[in-house]
């Protein structure tokens, strides 16, 4: 089949300045806009574009004031549950769906089980989530016999019936509220779901019949993307009094006229079912197309930024002041947020502190505290809402099924209809996962206060029960139970690894990531050149960095104590030289031990040393320089390392200064299983206070045997599997990523460990062409092509990342 690349046709440039001025005047006067007006406004450029944004922003502000929340932009804290990735449609831009064969290769079930759903939801509950987004493919049983067989085996007549069962179960077991997003539904199915979910959704995407009917276009061969069918769903939701989310997708090949007609069609459906001035469409999403690898549209350009922003503004003007206009924050660069807010957006949609965006896995969510800060910088307050927008919560008698009203009321602020929890704090420690430190401490204290009777009962649990409990609530197990999991062998270890891989799949997603980087050992700095390939001068730094940048690196990792005879200012000099040579490279530099050396020898003190490093160009810091957080272990194997409490002081100070970091555990020395568990718990506690860890790396002692095993005779690979799996489970909901140290375990073992809970391969570790011997672990490289081939064996997507797990753009 020939794939037609999306393009926007001439109407964007066809409107005359006079026509745009006339349409702007009508919009400013508050007149009702038709599709022709909307199409004309989409073509606004220059000063007229600025006026378009100003009018849209003023209309949004007026609507928020009328709604009793002036200056408030909302979001919903959610858990994203991909109930099934089977689908009967064939959209050309989608990476969400799988075939049954792909599921088999990935070892994924046709549908998530209730136990798997609850395991993820309970973690989200502990992190303050209130929404469970149930997303899935359209009617997979109509295309795939495997889906039909699974539903028959489990006693469900349809996928929609299973959605209703899961939604009801989630609220009954956790009190969280489901937002059902199962695609096309008829009126009977909407009635079935209404008592289980306070809100539902389905994107209209576009009214373009060309994109649906013409071979090669994005929706050809996808029966559920018939625009007429999707408009009927929106109408049916209005008749059934369902608070409904819909919207348009910008940049999939639609014309300006298509965009305008789509927005007007949504407004018309909304108004047809209006009662007392309130229609059923609770928010309109304006979503920008982002090309994804492994799709028919992988080579298509992303939606043009200004065209996208114009669509947001026109959506505001067409829909009016009372409609919530939503823009997904992970699909735009933070530098673009200001334009989107100026264009009249007032809702960021669902953002998860726990789970990936499984529909757009290459686009991580912004951290919630960052989103709050950026929203504040734009002059607005970020407030949390429920799945249903406040107007529908406050008018629950009309819009919320009686079965759900108690659950909605339990989570809502009765005065505003927003979520009852306070807005995210901007002061204090940042949270990489989005959960407030108080929430984490409370969860931890509740776990610690379990009665002796409960502990004795859990001690009697079998391995499978322990694994299920760990997957649902990492704080529910005591140390003895975690030790039991660390020492699992045989079938028990297989169960442990599979559960950890499930937790990985349903939280951080399927992607395996890698950063293109180079290492430089700062201990090699010399004032003058000497005949030693591991050494370098400041003049060499610029050449090394320029070479790495030319080779495609996005990160330079620098760590290691300077020699005592080198001035401590050398740490800062290296950083400045790096940024001077390649301003765009990310500098990941200096362990707590290195920072403390700078602080002590320069007389700056810890906080001032960190500030100086920030000013010099350091972006993030390695959390290395410690083996196990135990003074007993340090004294035996690494007495030259920083004292444990001082390492903790250094890493927490770095986090509080705004630096993100890695975290590690070096295992296979003299440490006990209890000390490993205590180490992981301590890292989790630090994360609860600061939120600064981006990843955890379990690193084995080098050597043919891979270190000293916890279980005598256990194979080194099984030792690593147990360590990775326990790390994933114990740190789940706290430190999101588990990195596999391919330099220590080898490439073949790395593939196995990616099936035990791992989701990252670290860095390429380019040696480069300039001073290749000056890097840590020089002589070991993992080219991105080799990493992609490793991941392809797992049938999982591979992507290059930034140091902080964003999408690499080089």
Write down the overall mean pLDDT: 92
Structural class: alpha/beta
Strand content: 5-15%
Strands, count: 18
Radius of gyration: 27 Å
Shape: globular
Give a short account of the largest sheet.
Answer: 9 strands, parallel
Range of helix content: 40-55%
Distance between the termini: 31 Å
Low-confidence regions = 1-11, 423-460
Give the count of helical stretches.
Answer: 34
Name some characteristics of this structure:
single chain; 810 residues; alpha/beta; 9-stranded parallel sheet; 18 strands; disordered N terminus
Describe this structure in words.
This protein is α/β, with parallel strands linked by helices. The relative contact order is 0.09. The N terminus is likely disordered. The protein contains 34 helices and 18 strands. The strands form four sheets. Strands 1, 2, 3, 4, 5, 6, 7, 8 and 9 form a nine-stranded parallel sheet that branches. The longest helix has 21 residues. Strand 5, helix 12 and strand 6 form a beta-alpha-beta unit. 44% of the residues lie in helices and 12% in strands.
